[in-house]
Design brief:
single chain, seven-stranded antiparallel sheet, 62 helices, 38% helix, 13% strand
């Protein structure tokens, strides 16, 4: 029996002591006045009566009621029922209130109840003060409290004739039973009657309707996340305006957690004064009035549930782990069936009649039943993982967490892991683990209903039936007598609180109440105590546990065959059949990845242990140890599958004799596993063993079998009783035993535990002390030992360890490698373990002290034994470690760290490990990793002895490292490895390495640090491109320290000069220039000519050298070389001049402006820019302000046919967008004038439009009458399948919206090409601006303007970065996929979205190509103008202009668009320390991938090969060359890196520029050349861009383990190995055939294509004949020329060309691949540049040939050339220059006249394109001509640009030159 109420308290409003306006609660009276002995009066009640603070009120509020909960220091909960009513305030209280009128007004506005409202009238003397009746109880009977306090209030208000003292006295003396389902009627003596029912079992919580209300307020998902949050110990805060709601919600949440008990802070209603409690670091469940929501805003780690709003807010930093699947989804669906039964019937055609839904109370129980089932499913079989450590005097029980998680298959599950580690679960184990106790509903459920729940899983109706059955039981527990009579309690009349003349609550007579209480107490003392006998039973264990979700273990599904292999191998080992065992070993080691095989191994080894000791010979010992290590390597530190536990007895059994008296046990060879240094593992093992021995202690002798060999397993055979059963039986008998017997049993148990502790101290020293005790690092790096140094979990503080092991107890950890150090660490580790387990298992303190004395001796003894073992083991013949293979290095590349011995492990790519392709298992390989200034290199040999001695090499440039991650690995090779490193590079390479035991952790750390230092040098000058093989030494002061101003100024002068040399010289003699006859809108001559005049003034005569004859030694900048690249291209395209002459300006639409020569306007642009002629330089500054990064629109390419121009710029700023559409957005003219920048911008775009010949007439917008759709179709190849369907020819479609995918009109062709090529609308804008959709939001085009917007959605740079990361992981996964096969690879490839980004780029580029081809100009204005803009602009030029598809042209394109126009290579490649945080973003790689896609679709259109693209992809990140360093020309100049020192080029030097390297290499080998190069006359390519047409680039997936990446040519291509003539065993000579392994050999090298093969053969034969071999290019050109001549006479080509002609014309580009088949060699020789369709050589063919030949680069290097005629000629230099003798070469094939300094010069100094030659005429000698030569030896060549004066050595040779040139012209 228990008291219903402990205290009754009356609390009233009182003034605040510090005089502040707010009042405070004062206890007027409390009954009884003395504290009960068993229950002292709780403090702080007055705070909880008015949680929002004590305030006066202007109106009388109705009485309120709620129950607050206080928790005392013993975790006892006190329920405080508070009934508050208002009485008129006394005068003193009025004064208090008046002071604080302002303060309370503020609070009232926030909606706090019971506050002074500023709007209500408050006449003086009419304020009301709250008064609260409080009832304090330890029982939770809310309704009884409400009725009882209500009755007291009613007696007071209604003036009933009952004394309040007697009612309160009766209330305080009322006693009720605690549980057991009894019912009791009570009366307080005021004519009332109440019936109290107590629950059947008090362990089940009572919830009334609180759970159902909680779900109504928050919904299923929110309640589930609160449930998970409470279980995983997060902080939860409820908000509501109602206190009763807060109390109910907290009670409901606690009821859901049953059978776990919440043990942290629990305050359902928190008073305002205690709000700082919310910042406590411990978990809590707290309720707070919603008025204080603002104060909860800054709580960063609190989950806030708003009951009134129905929301749950989880902060970003909080992660609530969800329930494991499938429980999460099952629980969710059952809850929705309970809460919303109509949901299931909502879709039925004939819904059944509506059934009445269950009452709220019943629904509450159904919801709780769902959670009860959930816990039963989650914790099913938990009793099988209980270890009973002691039975008497009190049971001590431990839970084996790892075994539980392992057997349930939930090791990875975050939720269950956290629950099992939580306080609530610890309480659950100690409370419910007891084997003999009273049981409840949960115990029944776990034991008996598991099978039913599993069977019902897929039948919702059965689940619902089960839930309802459980709900019935829960309901019956709360309401055992449903048909009880109703309560009868008086209530006050309606509105009684508003009566005017209410008397205040009277002061009660303490004496009367105390007398009634004393009377009742005296009566109680006389009565015998009513003790209800507990019904205690053995708790049933239920069925053994099963996995929550049966997962097949995929690759390692353990077939019987695998287990058979394991068994056979072990029997071979023990039978001494070592050769057989060796053959099987690799298969066994692979099989041991599976759990069943590991279990099988432990069982087999157990069978072979005889008399607890199995002495093996050396080979057997090695095999057994290897298999054990392989078993343990996949063990986590938890050992959830019990493998380490099963092996523990074995490692102390198997041994070998090293010498007489010295035996080595297996444990000394299996120590390198993390599991041995995990205290939790040892504790679980210890408790398991103790349980086995305790059980044996109590079993009858008949049943007392020898303890099972499998010590770690707690599952005995069925017929034996489990340890829990034995313990339960013993607990039942305990009270009946005599005192002596009890003592004896306690002693026996204690000594059992003690002896096990000694045994384990020995075992631990075996596995923790290394064989070579000097290697303390092994211990230092072990997970457990080091960490425990700092945080001891010892429970015994006064242990003897300190005094006994003083010499070991050094605080320093284990920094010195001394023996005592290792010993000290192990002693401390074992002492901590002993402290913990012995304290928990109740070992006496004497025994514990004895243990602490013993441990150092045990350790010391073991160390001495090990010294002998170590000494003897060293005498064994060592296992041969493979010799380290040194890698070949590049010139200038130096080793930073010499080889660290490592093992290269297989990653997710199957090929290397002999996966899907079925090759040999090359990995794992043993070798070493080297770190050089340029690369990370691994070289080694495969570990598998059956593979053979192949060299395995993997490397990547240090600069390409994107991620470095520490891993810990254990491989199955002989030498055990510990920690490892996984390095991933953006060249799609992965090094997953494990360091050898000989590599110290400090060496590994040094490797990481050095790698990091090399990867992120502080400055770009620290990269290999600058340090490798150059004279730059760190000691030399860097150039950047110079005064930058003057050098920049000098440079800008230099730059303009050089540009003028390149372009301007041709225009000096004006009369020889024929301007193109364009229509030109009459523009006034520009006024602002200063810049151009001042530039021309600076042309000192000395700087004017002939056109291109600039020696590298002429101290010029590399920057100006790049400028020359730009200017050369502008010159080729005819885009403008850099001339001071005003008269010239009128005819040229564009000009080269030097406005940016100081990089003042835009740092990331080149110094010279092409702008409209009519725009003056001072206007450009203003225009640039409208664009991001000041990158204003400049011309970068002009179509040779339609004369449309392509412009590029950064994205517009907001004001720039407005400026584009001023007519739309600025209605009044005054406004449009206001922003001059916008106006200038408009004029600028107008000037671009005007400069186009087709749009230069007054009509402004012209229809493209000149182009019929047929013409449009005939130009360019159609490749692109576009997803945005094209409209028919007659339909006008807005380009922008079509690309955005809105107007899909007209049926597209099956292939996605447009139905008709003239799909663009007939009336086009002069200029299309392609911009970001987001930029042009809300802007409507103005019909009068001549430009039009094409808003497109492009991806952002960060999306490229994220996509690339996923692509890397897909192509080079770190570990094998869960499901093998191509599906997972393709899925991850799709997830990366890389191909869809490529698709988007190609799609936009083809759109721009079409617009340009149709005569409209295009401005690409995306992002900042240096990433996606560059990609699009470069692709457009590549697709539109065949020149860029040559080697020289592509180089020019990259130099111009990527380098000069400031793509941020260093920033995007994270080259230096500063860029480390931004990460690697492969914008350039993405562009190269696009080019690769186009190359695949048009293989005959590109002069360069796919290898060239891969080469650039590799080297743009490798930092081997300086080409792709820094972010802009400005930076290159500023750092002073672009000056070539005169003396710097002595001797053969490493190439600085990637282009130089490509040129050198092209001379030697055709690796960059595409033999199928045969460009067609049509110039424009239109590739298909659908994802289905794109291929994954093999650059991402291929690898050559034989030699590493093939892109450093000097390294990859050593001499080929000579074929072996004889076998080593003296057998017959081998054939010349050899096996080519995928992923190991380089296939192009092992099986070169036919042409390369023939060229190599030719070179070899020439060398054999002793002739200097001819250059491959000359040979190739001769063969092609011969083919052409052969095909001419009868107008037919050889059979090969007929084959070519049969390819359909529009897609001939996909014609033939060289490696496809045996026809390759005949086909390939016919693919010459002239027979583009392979038909007859008619007149049209002649015309085509001329256009084709002009496509060749006129800047081709001298090496890859054809020489039709050559000799020495004198040439007149440019203006004011002397005549000079030069070596001239006439090239018929390329249609060029080239000249060199002398005959053997390889660098071409200039080119005259014969296509531009107008006439060849006799000349006259001019000033400075050679004196001795006949006048007739002079002749002039007149081109469209200038006149060249030549002089031959004599008249005949002059005549011969003229004839040759003439014949070339007539041929063309």
């Amino acid at each position: 029996m228990a008291r219903l109420a402990d205290y009754f308290v009356l609390v009233a409003f009182g003034p605040h002591p510090r005089g502040s306006g707010e009042g405070q609660g004062q206890i007027l009276q409390r009954f009884p006045e003395k504290d009960w002995e068993d229950n002292p009066f709780p403090q702080g009640i007055e705070l909880f009566c008015q949680p929002s603070g004590w305030q006066l009120c202007a109106e009388r509020n109705p009485p309120t009621f709620f129950v607050a909960v206080l928790t005392d220091i013993n975790s006892e909960r006190h329920y405080c029922a508070c009934l508050t009513f208002w009485e008129p305030a006394e005068p003193a209280q009025d004064a208090v209130c008046a002071e604080d009128a302002a303060g309370s007004e503020e609070l009232a506005e926030e909606g706090v109840p019971m506050r002074l409202s500023p709007t209500s009238p408050s006449p003086p003397g009419q304020l009301f003060a709250p008064k609260t009746l409080v009832l304090v109880s330890r029982l939770d009977h809310t309704e009884v409290f409400r009725n009882s306090l209500g009755l007291i209030y009613t007696v007071h208000v209604e003036g009933l004739s009952v004394s309040l003292e007697s009612v309160i006295g009766n209330l305080l003396t009322c006693t009720i039973p605690l549980a057991g389902g009894s019912q009791r009627t009570i009366s307080l003596g005021a004519g009332d009657r109440q019936v109290i029912q107590t629950p059947l079992t008090d362990s089940l919580p009572v919830s009334c309707c609180s759970v159902a209300l909680l779900f109504r307020q928050l919904g299923i998902t929110n309640v589930l996340s609160l449930f998970c949050a409470a279980l995983t110990e997060h902080k939860i805060l409820f908000l509501s305006r109602s206190y009763q709601r807060l109390a109910d919600a907290c009670r409901g949440l606690l009821a859901l957690l049953f059978p776990l008990r919440y043990s942290f802070t629990y305050v359902p209603i928190l008073p305002a004064q205690l709000l700082e409690v919310l910042s406590t670091p411990t978990p809590f469940i707290i309720g707070v009035n919603a008025a204080f929501q603002a104060e909860t805003q800054e709580l960063l780690d609190v989950i806030i549930a708003d009951l009134d709003g129905g929301t749950v807010t989880v902060p970003e930093c909080v992660h609530i782990p969800p329930l494991p699947e499938p429980l999460q989804s099952q629980t969710h669906s059952v809850l929705s069936m309970v809460l919303d039964p109509e949901l299931e019937l909502a879709d039925l055609a004939f819904p059944p009649p509506v059934t009445s839904s269950s009452s709220l109370k019943m629904q509450d129980k159904e919801l709780r039943a769902v959670f009860l089932r959930l816990f039963a499913q989650l914790l099913q079989g938990y009793r099988w993982c209980l270890h009973i450590v002691r039975i008497h005097p009190e049971p001590v029980i431990r839970f084996h967490k790892a075994a539980f998680l392992g057997q349930r298959g939930l090791v990875e599950d975050d939720f269950l892991m956290k629950v099992l580690e939580g306080m609530a679960f610890a309480g659950f184990v100690s409370e419910r683990g007891v084997p003999y106790r009273s049981t409840d509903l949960f115990d029944e459920l776990v034991a008996r209903e598991v099978a039913r729940m599993r069977a019902d899983e897929n039948y919702p109706q059965r689940v619902l039936r089960h839930v309802r059955e459980l709900a019935e039981q829960l309901y019956k527990n709360e309401n055992p007598y449903p048909a009880v009579t109703m309560h009868k309690v008086q209530r006050p009349m309606e509105s009684s609180h508003l009566r005017r003349a209410l008397r205040p609550f009277p002061r009660l007579d303490e004496g009367t109440v105390q007398w009634i209480v004393d009377q009742a107490t005296a009566k109680m003392q006389g009565a015998p105590p009513a003790v209800r006998a507990e019904r205690r039973t053995t708790v049933p264990s239920g069925p053994p546990m099963t996995a929550i979700l049966e997962r097949s273990s995929g690759l390692h599904a353990n077939s019987a065959r695998r287990l058979e292999v394991v068994r056979n191998c072990i029997s071979y080992v023990f039978e001494g059949k070592m050769l057989e065992a060796k053959k099987l070993l690799p298969a066994v080691l692979r099989a041991l990845k599976g759990r069943a095989a590991r279990r099988c191994l432990t069982q087999e080894l157990h069978l072979h242990v005889q008399q607890n000791r199995a002495v093996l010979d050396h080979q057997q010992f090695d095999f057994v140890v290897r298999m054990m290590n392989c078993c343990l390597q996949d063990c986590t530190s938890m050992d959830e599958h019990g493998v380490a536990a099963a092996l523990l007895p074995l490692v102390t059994a198997f041994c070998r004799k090293l010498s007489p008296g010295v035996t080595q046990f297996a444990y000394s060879c299996v120590q390198e596993h993390v599991v041995w240094s995990t205290p939790q593992f040892w504790e679980a093992m210890f408790y398991g063993d103790v349980q086995t021995h305790i059980r044996a202690l109590y079993l009858e002798p008949t049943e007392d079998h020898a303890p099972s060999q499998e010590v770690g397993e707690t599952l005995p055979r069925e017929e034996e009783r489990s340890a829990l059963d034995v313990a339960s039986e013993q607990r039942r008998l305990w009270p009946m035993l005599s005192r002596e017997k009890q003592q004896e049993l306690v002693q026996k148990e204690e000594s059992t535990v003690f002896s096990q502790a000694i045994h384990y101290a020995n075992r631990m020293s075996y596995l923790l002390l290394p064989l070579d005790s000097s290697k303390s690092r092994l211990l230092r790096d072990r997970a457990g030992l080091g960490d425990l140094e700092s945080a001891s979990n010892s429970l015994v503080t006064n242990s003897m360890a300190g005094s006994m092991a003083g010499s070991y107890d050094t605080e320093s950890g284990f920094e010195d490698a001394e023996i005592s150090d290792v010993a000290g660490a192990v002693v401390r580790f074992i002492n901590r373990f002993v402290d913990k387990v012995c304290t928990e298992s109740g070992v006496t303190s004497d025994h514990l002290k004895g243990l602490h004395v013993m441990v150092p001796d045990i350790v010391q003894m073991h160390i001495e034994t090990l010294e002998a073992v170590h000494r003897e083991s060293k005498r064994l013949p060592p296992i041969q470690k493979p010799k380290l293979l040194r890698p070949r290095l590049l010139p200038g590349e130096e080793c930073v760290l010499d080889g660290l011995r490592v093992s290269l492990l297989p990653d997710g790519r199957e090929a290397g490990a002999g996966g899907g392709v079925g090759g040999p298992a090359l990995l794992p390989a043993e070798g070493a990793v080297f770190l050089t200034t340029y690369r990370v290199i691994f070289t080694g040999m495969p570990a598998d002895p059956l593979v053979g001695e192949q060299v395995v090499a993997r490397s990547f440039p240090v600069a390409a490292l994107t991620k470095e991650k520490r891993i810990s690995v254990q491989t199955h090779v002989d030498q055990l490895l510990q920690d490892g490193l996984q390095l991933r590079s953006c060249t799609f390479q992965l090094l997953k390495m494990a360091f050898d035991e000989e590599v110290g952790s400090d060496s590994a750390e040094l490797f990481r640090k050095q790698l990091h230092k090399l990867r992120y040098p502080p400055d770009v000058r620290g990269t290999f491109a600058f340090t490798g093989g150059s004279a730059h030494t760190p000691g030399r002061p860097a150039r950047a320290t110079k005064d930058k101003g003057p050098s920049l100024r000098a440079l800008s002068r230099n730059l303009v000069k050089n540009a003028k040399k390149t372009i301007g010289r041709q225009y000096v003699t004006r009369k020889k220039y024929n301007p193109p006859n364009w229509e030109h809108r009459g523009q006034p001559p520009p006024e602002d000519q200063d810049d151009e005049i001042s530039v021309s003034d600076e042309l000192e005569p000395s700087t004017l050298t002939p056109t291109s004859a600039l020696k590298p030694s002429d101290r010029m900048t590399m920057s100006s070389l790049v400028e020359r690249a730009c200017c050369r291209d502008y010159q080729r395209l005819g885009l403008g001049t850099l001339s001071s002459s005003l008269s010239r300006a009128k005819s040229e639409p564009f000009r080269v402006s030097p406005v940016n020569r100081m990089y003042a306007i835009c740092r990331s642009y080149p110094g010279l820019l092409i702008v409209p002629q009519s725009i003056q330089d001072n206007a450009l500054q203003r225009v640039s302000r409208c664009y991001r990064q000041n990158r204003f629109p400049v011309v970068c390419w002009r179509s040779g046919r339609s004369r449309a121009v392509l412009l590029r710029s950064g994205g517009l700023h907001g004001k720039g967008v407005v400026g584009l559409f001023k007519a739309q957005n600025a209605p009044s003219p005054g406004q449009s004038q206001a922003d001059s920048s916008s106006l200038e911008q408009e004029q600028y775009l107008q000037a671009v439009v005007s400069s186009m010949p087709r749009y230069a007439d007054a009509s402004g917008r012209n229809t493209l009458s000149g182009f019929s759709s047929a013409q449009l179709g005939s130009h360019g190849k159609w490749g692109s399948i576009r997803a945005s369907g094209r409209s028919g020819s007659g339909i006008s479609v807005d380009v922008g919206s079509r690309l955005a995918g809105r107007d899909v009109l007209g049926p597209p062709q099956p292939n996605g090409a447009p139905p008709d090529p003239g799909f663009l609308r007939p009336q086009r804008a002069a200029l299309y601006i392609i911009g970001d959709k987001a930029q042009f939001k809300g802007v409507r085009p103005d019909p009068l303007q001549q430009w039009e917007l094409v808003p497109i959605e492009v991806f952002e740079v960060r999306q490229v970065k994220a996509s690339f990361k996923k692509l890397l992981k897909a192509c080079v996964p770190g570990c094998p996929a869960a499901e093998p096969g191509p599906a997972s690879y393709l899925r991850s490839l799709e997830d990366s979205e890389w191909l869809s980004q490529i698709h988007k780029l190609l799609q936009v580029s083809v759109l721009v190509v079409e617009l340009l081809d149709s005569g409209s100009s295009v401005l690409v204005s995306l992002e900042d103008g240096w990433d996606i803009t560059t990609q699009v602009v470069s692709l457009v030029q590549l697709l539109s202009d065949p020149f860029y598809r040559t080697l020289e042209g592509f180089r020019l394109l990259v130099e111009k668009e990527w380098l000069s126009f400031g793509h941020r290579f260093s920033h995007r490649g994270a080259h230096t320390l500063a860029g480390q945080s931004s990460g690697f973003t492969p914008i350039f790689l993405q562009f190269l991938d696009c080019v690769h896609q186009v190359h695949l679709q048009f293989p005959m259109e590109f002069e360069f090969s796919q290898f060239y693209l891969k080469f650039l992809s590799y080297h743009h990140v490798s930092r081997r060359f300086r080409t792709f360093l820094l972010d802009s020309d400005y930076e290159r100049i500023e750092l002073g890196l672009l000056y070539e020192e005169k003396g710097e080029r002595r001797g053969p030097q490493a190439c600085r520029s990637v282009w130089e390297y490509v040129d050198r290499l092209s001379k030697k080998t055709p690796v960059f050349y595409n033999y199928m190069y045969a460009p067609e006359d049509t110039e424009v390519l239109r590739p298909y861009s659908n994802v289905s047409n794109l291929k994954v680039w093999d650059f991402y997936t291929e690898e050559t383990l034989a030699e590493g990446p093939p892109y450093d040519w000097e390294l990859a291509h050593g001499p080929p190995e000579p074929p072996e003539e004889e076998r080593p065993d003296g057998g017959a000579p081998q054939s010349r055939r050899r096996v080519v392994w995928p992923c190991y050999d380089s296939r192009p090298r092992a099986q070169p294509d036919a042409i390369s093969r023939l060229l190599e053969e030719l070179q070899r034969l020439e060398t054999e004949l002793g002739r200097p071999p001819e250059r491959w290019k000359d040979t190739w050109d001769r063969v092609k020329a011969a083919q052409r001549l052969e095909g001419r006479p009868d107008g037919r080509g050889p059979p090969g060309s007929l084959l070519v002609s049969s390819v359909p014309h529009h897609r001939r580009s996909l014609g033939v691949y060289l490696q496809e088949g045996p026809v390759g060699s005949t086909l390939s020789l016919s693919l010459d540049s002239d027979q583009s369709s392979g038909s007859t050589a008619s007149g049209s063919r002649q015309a085509a040939r001329r256009s084709t030949s002009t496509l060749y680069s006129q800047f081709q290097t001298a090496e890859s050339e054809n020489r039709s005629y050559e000799g020495t000629l004198y040439k007149k230099g440019a203006f004011m220059k002397p005549w000079k003798a030069r070596w001239f070469v006439l090239d018929k094939t390329k249609h060029q006249l080239r000249y060199y300094d002398h005959r053997v010069d390889t660098e071409c100094k200039g080119v005259i394109d014969l296509a531009e030659v107008e006439s060849v005429a006799p000349g006259t000698p001019t000033m400075g001509a050679p004196k001795t030569v006949d006048e007739k030896a002079f002749f002039d060549v007149k081109t469209t640009r200038r006149v060249y004066n030549f002089c031959a050595q004599d008249v005949p040779s002059a005549q011969q030159w003229v004839d040759r040139i003439q014949s070339c012209l007539s041929d063309a």
